[in-house]
Each structure stands twice: as structure tokens, then as C-alpha cells.
Design a protein that fits this description.
The structure is a homodimer of 419-residue chains.
Chain A lengths: L5 E3 L7 H7 L4 E7 L6 H12 L3 E8 L5 H14 L3 E6 L1 H15 L26 E5 L11 E6 L4 E6 L7 E4 L9 H20 L24 H23 L4 H21 L3 H11 L18 H6 L2 H8 L4 H10 L12 H15 L16 H8 L3 H4 L8 H10 L5
Parallel strand pairs in A: 1-8, 2-3, 2-4, 4-5, 5-8
Antiparallel strand pairs in A: 6-7
Helix pairs in contact in A: 1-2, 3-4, 5-6, 5-7, 6-7, 8-13, 10-12, 11-12, 13-15
Organism (chains A, B): Propithecus coquereli (Coquerel's sifaka)
Main location (chains A, B): mitochondrion
Keywords (chains A, B): Mitochondrion, Oxidoreductase, Transit peptide
Chain lengths: 419, 419
């Protein structure tokens, strides 16, 4: 169990130059995306680098929902720059791209698939030393500043996969709530749903002592090790914050208190799922976003169709937790209660429907699209969605209940409409 | 808020050889104390090192409640050995000694006082790289496996002080509950009191945003940074475990469940106080153990008078929290409730006495000596006890309420008898 280095506070971004100086950095790669490159978070980082006399180059070509192609472009940039440290300013897409750039630049003779999760890649353990990476999250969902995971679309197979290794975890996360004030409403909602599902999935994941195989060499054990007494603490705490602050954070752009708490909840849930793992909502989300046809999410300024990650994750959550509840009904009821359900008269066997109803109400209150149908999918897409879920066994095997292809079909079908 | 890597489970000690091999270690220093060197935890480590073909030397000369002299002996041993990694098997004394040996061997040109906390030492920041250190705690109190702190008696001034730097934090803590089964009753009780006070003090410490000064360079900020939203989570969680399991763990040597939970609580509280800090119970405990006259604690097999650390900490706790409660009465009431008090009718202004009474009952139930008088102190010793507390400002300034010398006198006097 690894806890992460984070520093929290309004304005901590201004310290990034000093941190890099303390790390001995002289030539820094600043990664961000085109939208953010004109916004205050990136400006604050550049000002701090200039003030501390640190040379840097900006890479602002990060793709929102990155692909192997966009990862490779960033890696190429990093290789040419011969940087001795990295700063990622943005959401999960930027932090994940930066992790990949750092990894492959530090391991120049590796093939791209070497470190990509099996079965798509070879899933090799990382044994090369990486450069320091400071992550400055500007969204309140991914928790990528605390995890050793980098997710991308593998275009060739039209499927999401990723790299998972403790070695790519950022050296430091600077969690500055001021950055949340620039977030449009849907971005707050969708990234909040990611936090919600990180918490729910890691808390209901297969316990660490029931996971198999359990490699005898600790180095070969996966980053996602199943629910455990430490990740449980983070998951429940993050969920309580979501229950208390998420609606306020979505609805009020100026509610710094609520958005600050969601910014911390994102990191807390990240520490939880970064050690325990996620399961079906995330495993099924990858084809939902990977196979997107024409849906373009409101509030996202991108030039390609997009089902945002948090939305793709949360749309299946009522169906998923109805399915999984029979394994750990108490935990499902407990989370429903945290999210506002009255469980005093609930029976154990109703844990799934109780949590599902609670989630549906939560999503409805936050104006979430009515299921997979509303983001462009029909029943005819289900076989492809199932096929895209099968390679995600790294996470789906952490579900408390095994799933057949028929089970997955039924879960997608049950997620076509929510209300 | 910083990293602590821990791995938990019955038998994880057996993995230490593989961990060291993964770290590239070839010549390891195994530190322990004379009592433990004949016991199963050390044997398990040696077996694992042998099995993995790792060369090692044993240093079993660690002093329980170490001194600058005993630290220096260990440092000298380490310097001669030119080790590339360390394993500490024992309680806080062993882990702290090993941290110091690793630090000064990695910084051979430093004077011993360079890294010692001001005002006794120079309190220089650590900028040299250290060797990997794996900590295997065998007591359930110190949490030293998760902290960047090493405490010792500075004999010349007859006062406890220490070294505090994130740089000396162990690379990995292996938390193996099997080791708790060898602990005699008083060792479980006293180390549990250390956990109790770590949790209570860090939860009631001055909040991080009220601490001053706040050095502009993050590297210069103290390891003990005041209570914060992350340390709070660990403190409260550890306290709940203490409330639930400590009495069982003390009374039943075979209660592996209770002792396992206390072993984890020790690490959890360590992560909490290792970031937030402790305050008056710890600050006042250093002269209480440092000025010991003839008291010899039951169940401790040592050849010198000894007030065990956890006992020296807890004896002042009723007086301390009566004194501090006016600042954060809600937190004091909340902790009293966790420890079993009925606070439904308690008034805010009674928070101190309510928590103090709860603590007195808790201590009485666990057969704790009746105050400072019972460990050999009289009123005539109070000026010396106060004088020994004054240099502990690194921690005492984290108390939620400032203290004059008169306040400290009154706190010692109120701690002479508990019941």
C-alpha cells in the first residue's frame, strides 16, 4: 500500500518552481492541453518556473482522452527535449500522457507495447528510474496525481487500455483548489462521477486476500490489489465528501468551498482506487468511450466525438451495483446510506436495488443523460461493447462477482435507459 | 502530506529478502536489539536473507530508549560495513537507530548535531540520498515504520530530542502481525498508549494553516506540519481501533485479531502524526523518561532504569487534554465519545474534563501506574521536568494553546496522581 505525496492549498501551484529547484531540475517539460494552455493554471506554473530561473519547454498538444498516437507524439517531444523533470498541468489526460512520456523517455529501447497492460501489451514491470514528475490537477475527478496508472485509447483495436505501475506515480501532486474555478458545469459533474465510481468500485472490489494469482515476488504484484483496510478508509471518506459537496460544486462555479472539497476527494479516491483498483463501471466504460460515434459532450471544447470518461463510467453504475451487491450487501447498503438513502428498513437482499435507486436519483438530480441510448448506443451495439470489455480483465476480475459475456450483455442492456 | 509504503499481512516478513533483491541490495545491515535477536522475527528476516542469497551483518546492540552514544555506536558499525541497504527489526528504538545509522553513513562529513532538531542541534535539511531501509516493527505503538523521525536521549543535557526529516522515512514497512504475539502484557499496554496519544495529539494539534512560521520554500517546512484533513482521517481511524481492540490486545497474548488491529493502528497513527505532529503529551514525556531515577518497568528486560515511552506519554494525558480542550472542544468531545464516553448531555465547556475522565478510566482499566508519583517523581522534580520540556518546542508549539512555564508546572503537578 503506497500513499502518495500531495500538497494541498489555494496557491500551492506557485511553489512548483521551488519544488523543481529542490529536485535539481534545470530543463523542464511542461505538459498541458490546448484549452488550458491559455488559462491561469498554466500561467501560474510558467510564472513560477520563470521566477525560479528554470528553463522549460511547453507541450500543449495533449489530446483529451489520449490515444496511442497522441501518447507517442508526446513521447517524441520528450525524447528530443532531454528533460530532467516534468510538470503536468491538466486533467487525467494530461497527467497520463506525461507519465507515459516520462516512462518511455527513461526507457528508450522499449517498444511501446512493452509496458502496456496485458493482454493487449506485454505488461512488463518497470525497473528503470524515471525523472521527477509534478502533477497539477485542474479537474476534480481523475485522481491521476496520486496513481501509477496512465489510460489511453488503443486505436488499432478501438479499445481503452493503459499502463499500470507504481513507478509512474507522480513524485508530487500539487492540489490547488483555485484551479477548479475555471471548470465548466459538465466538467465538474463528469469528473465528480469519476470520483463517485472510484470510491464505490474500490470499496466493493474483491478483497486483497481473495485476489488471485498472488505472485510470490512483491514486485510482480499488480498496482490494483483489491480492497483492503487502507483503501477502504479513503474510499469511504471520498464518498462522504461527494455526498456532501458534489451537487453544490456542480451548480455553483463560485463555490470554492465545495469545489475545494471535491478537489481533495478526487485525490483521496485516487489513493484508494490506486491501491485497491476499480472494476466493472470502469472496465465497461472503456468501450463506451472508445466506440463513441457522434456524441459530443456539452462544455468540452474538443474537435472529436467524446463521451467524457466520468460519464462513460457512471452510466452503468446502477446496473453494475445491482449485479455485484449479492457479494457484499452490507457495503452496498452502507454506500447507499452515505449517498442519502434511508436504509433502516432495507433488507440485505435488496442492497443492489437500494444502491441503484440512490444512484439514479443522484444522477437525475445532476441532469445526467438518460443512459447509453442518450449517448448514441442501441441494442445492436451491445456485442461490440461486450467485446471491448473483455480485454479489460485487469480491472473486471476485481469485481466481487465473476461475469460471463451474457452478464456483461445484460449489464449494458440494463444501462440503455436509467430513469 | 507524504508517502509511507507499508505492506501488511501475517508472514510478510518472509518477503524481505525478495524486496531487498528487487532493490538491488547485496550487502545488508540488519539492526535489532539483544532481546529480539534470539526471537522469531529476527530469525524470519535472516532466513529470508539467506534464502535470497543476500549477504548481511547483524547489529544487535541497539539500546532500548537510545542515546546519542548508542546512536553513534550504530553509525560507526554501519560506516565500517559499507552497506547498500538496511533492515530494522524491532520497536521504535531499533527503527530510529537504524534511520540515524543510514543518515550519517550517507552523509559522512556531517557533525552529529547537524541534523538534530534545533535548538539542541542545527536542524539542517537532509539533501543527501540515503540507502533503502526496510522497517519490520515488532511492537504496536511507535509507528516509526511510517515516519521520518528518530528520537534519542541527548545525555549531555539529559533530554530527549531527535532528528526529523522526510528523508529518513523507511522505504518500506513490513507490518507482520505474527510479531505481536511475542509481546509481553506491559509492552502491549505501553506501546498502545503511544498509539492513543499519537492519535489524540495529532487530531488536536494546531491546524496546518495556523502554524507559523510557514517557510516559503517547501523543503524547509517541518515534517510536523499541524493537523490537516489527511492526518485527521488517520488519527480518528487509529483511535477507533484503539477503542475497539486495545484492552483485548493487552489482556490476551493469543488474541491475534486484536493484536493485528493494534499493529495496523500503530502504522495508521504513525502516518497521521508523522505528518501532523504531536504536542504536549510527547513534549512533556521526554524529560519524564529522560530524568528517570530508579523506576524499572515491568516486562522490560533492560539493565537500566526505564519509564517506557508510551507510559511517559500517557501519564500526563488527562491533564494535557483538560488544558487544551478550550481551543477545539468539539474534537476533544468527539475523541472522548470514540473512547466510550456518553457525550449526549456534555457541554462544550466540559470537553476537557470529559475527555480526561474517559482517559483516566481507560488507564485504570489497564492497570496503569497512578501518575508521575508512581514512577518516582515528586513535586521537587517539577522545575527539572519543566526545564526538560522547554527545548521540545518543535512539538510543544503544535499544541493548540500556548503554554507558559507556569502552565507546564501545573500540568506536571496535576499529573502526579491520576485516580
Amino acid at each position: 500500500m503506497a500513499v502518495s505525496n500531495i500538497r494541498y492549498g489555494a496557491g500551492v501551484t506557485k511553489e512548483v518552481g521551488m519544488d523543481l529547484q529542490n529536485m535539481g531540475a534545470k530543463n523542464v517539460c511542461l505538459m498541458t492541453d490546448k484549452n488550458l494552455s491559455q488559462l491561469p493554471p498554466v500561467q501560474a506554473v510558467m510564472d513560477s518556473l520563470v521566477k525560479n530561473g528554470i528553463r522549460f519547454q511547453v507541450y500543449d498538444n495533449v489530446r483529451v482522452e489520449p490515444t496511442d498516437t497522441s501518447f507517442k507524439e508526446a513521447i517524441e517531444f520528450a525524447q528530443k527535449g532531454a528533460f530532467d523533470a516534468y510538470v503536468a498541468v491538466g486533467g487525467g489526460s494530461t497527467m497520463d500522457t506525461c507519465k507515459a512520456a516520462n516512462l518511455y523517455t527513461s526507457s528508450p529501447h522499449s517498444d511501446f507495447l512493452d509496458y502496456v497492460n496485458a493482454p493487449i501489451g506485454k505488461g512488463k514491470p518497470v525497473s528503470v528510474p524515471l525523472k521527477p514528475l509534478i502533477a497539477v490537477p485542474t479537474t476534480t475527478g481523475t485522481g491521476s496525481e496520486t496513481t501509477g496508472v496512465a489510460i489511453f485509447d488503443y486505436e488499432h483495436l478501438k479499445v481503452k487500455t493503459g499502463i499500470a505501475s507504481r513507478a509512474i506515480k507522480p513524485t508530487l501532486g500539487l492540489i490547488d483548489p483555485l484551479h477548479t474555478l475555471h471548470m465548466p458545469e459538465r466538467l465538474v459533474a463528469n469528473s465528480g462521477f469519476d470520483v463517485l465510481c472510484h470510491a464505490l468500485e474500490s470499496y466493493t472490489a474483491l478483497p486483497y486476500h481473495m485476489r488471485s494469482p498472488c505472485p510470490s515476488n512483491p514486485m510482480m504484484r499488480p498496482a490494483y490489489q483489491g480492497s483492503n483496510p487502507i483503501s477502504d478508509l479513503w474510499a469511504v471518506h471520498a464518498l462522504r465528501i461527494v455526498a456532501k459537496y458534489m451537487k453544490r460544486a456542480v451548480r455553483n462555479p463560485d463555490d470554492l468551498e465545495a469545489r475545494s472539497h471535491m478537489h481533495l476527494a478526487s485525490a483521496f479516491a485516487g489513493i484508494g482506487f490506486g491501491n485497491a483498483g476499480v472494476h466493472l463501471c470502469h472496465g465497461m466504460s472503456y468501450p463506451i468511450s472508445g466506440l463513441v460515434k457522434t456524441y459530443k459532450a456539452k462544455d468540452y471544447n474538443v474537435d472529436h466525438p467524446l463521451v467524457p470518461h466520468g460519464l462513460s463510467v457512471v452510466l452503468t453504475s446502477p446496473a453494475v451495483f445491482t449485479f455485484t451487491a449479492q457479494m457484499f450487501p452490507e457495503r452496498h447498503l452502507e454506500t447507499a446510506e452515505i449517498l442519502g438513502a434511508d436504509i433502516r428498513t432495507a433488507r440485505t437482499q435488496d442492497a443492489g436495488p437500494v444502491l441503484a435507486d440512490t444512484l439514479r436519483k443522484f444522477l437525475f438530480d445532476l441532469d445526467v443523460d438518460d443512459g447509453l441510448a442518450a449517448v448514441g448506443y442501441t441494442k445492436a451495439d451491445i456485442p461490440a461493447l461486450v467485446k471491448g470489455t473483455l480485454p479489460q480483465e485487469r480491472v473486471t476480475k476485481l469485481a466481487p462477482r465473476p461475469q460471463s459475456e451474457e452478464d456483461l450483455s445484460a449489464l449494458f442492456e440494463a444501462s440503455m435507459k436509467l430513469y
